[in-house]
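Session log. Operator J.P. requested a structure for one protein chain; no other inputs attached. Running the standard single-chain path with token output.
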Amino acid sequence: MDINILSNLIITKIHSVSTMHIESGMKAKHHSRPAWAVILKYEGETVYSCKGKTYLSDLNNMTILPKGSTYEWQCKKSGRFYTMELECDATFDTIFNFPIQNGEKILKMYKDLEYKLTLKNSVYNAEILRDAYSLLLAVLPNKQKKYQPTDKRQKIAPAVDFIVKNYNRSIKNDELAALTGLSTVYFRKLFTEIFGVSPITYVHALRIRKAKEMLKSDYVTITNVALSLGYPDVYDFSRTFKKHTGVSPLKYLKGQ
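Structure written below.
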């Protein structure tokens, strides 16, 4: 599996970021995983098996378990690991496993993400998604890595804040660029480098995340959700929803 796929994923929700301890000898088998997980075993060793291949998970080797994958694992050496559970726009029947050279840096990124997610403060909503993308991009090989220093992220921070507060209305790249004082072309390029998706794709991903939350309510219809999120009509909303989730809003609603 080409690891370039990581730079094209659209993250729609972070379920949890947790650190856990497992003892040597523990093992389990999972069939058709319900959500993505990004694993950093920063103490000890765990071995994963998938489709006839085995993979080592430790501080120098990361494991990513996509939604839909079937695999087995066994802890070889006791220790703790971090797991980030998230929703993405793709499924795979295999797993990713690859060497890393910046395990301590990635461990710190996990800790920061866990802190922000534990607070569940609306101020951190945009930062959590941004940092999740940064973590994924930080583990890519150097020639593919697009992780950006803090100063570059700060340049687009006003635009990200504006998106979070105004995702339910029409937003244009020119408008976002003006908030940052950057040219539209450079703003879009910088935003895409940092988040892995364009500004408008990011807006739609945020809307779809909110749509899923709204559809669980007893007090809304699909049409009301569409209008509440700034879509001109239910057809445009349904088309976008299916593009991001693989199912129509009606099918998603019936599956709840």
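Operator note: The chain has nine helices and nine strands.
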